[in-house]
Amino acid sequence: MASLSAMASMSFDEMQRAMERDSLTLGSSRERVEVPRRAAARDLERVEVSRRAAARDLARVEVSRRAAARDSARVEVSRRAAARDLARVEVSRRAAARDLERVEVSRRAAARDLEQRASSAFAQMLRRHENSRATRHASSLRTRVLSEPLEDPITREILEPGTRAVVLPCNHTFSRGGITQWLERKRTCPVCRASV
Asked: Which residues form the RING-type domain (predicted)?
């Protein structure tokens, strides 16, 4: 992401291009999260195929046991082994499902984090844009050189004679720093609330 100080010096079009680049970066981050999720899904599919194959093997063993009653002891041993294999496959399937769930939770958390960071960056960019507009607006106001001391109503500092002060259209006078800070928050005169 572009740094905030760099964003402050950009034009609005440059900021839009930076946001589009950041959007592409966010997309690649999502892809990095999506790859492990797909791999876990493929593993789960392989485990499911193995589970089905083991289930088919178990069915064949059962048919053999019925057909070969005299070898029932050997068939029973084979059936039990297949059941153990099926249980192991089921344990593996459940573990793969848990892994897939963890990957999905991580993917969602990463997506939320990326969305929050993008929103925060956009909000900061807008605030900086508004602040720069307020500063430009304050610098375009009429100024005068004071002939007598004056207390700034915003900062409460005493402006000495000979100091250059900002005069609003309503003729109220302020220090440049004080009125600039005020105009970053509100577009009215701090004294009479007239629109500036």
From this structure: 159-193
Q: What is the pLDDT of residues 47-94, one digit of tens each?
A: 999 999 999 998 998 988 888 778 777 888 889 998 999 899 899 899
Residue 26: both structure tokens together: 């966010």
Q: For residues 126-163, b (16+ Cβ closer than 10 Å) or e, as one string?
A: eebbebeebeeebeebeeeeeeeebebbbeeeebeeeb
Question: Hey, is 174 helix, strand or coil?
Answer: strand
Q: What is the pLDDT of residues 154-189, one digit of tens each?
A: 888 999 999 999 999 999 999 988 888 888 888 899
Q: Which one-letter amino acid corresponds to residue 147?
A: S
Shared-domain flag, residues 22 and 111 = yes
Rounded Cα–Cα distance for residues 105 and 94 (Å): 16
User: Domain span at residue 26?
Assistant: 4-130
pLDDT at 34: 79
User: Are 20 and 49 found together in one domain?
Assistant: yes
- Cα 89 to Cα 76, 92, 93, 155: the distances in Å are 20, 5, 6, 74
Same domain for 91 and 43, yes or no, is yes
Note the pTM of the prediction, 2 decimals: 0.33
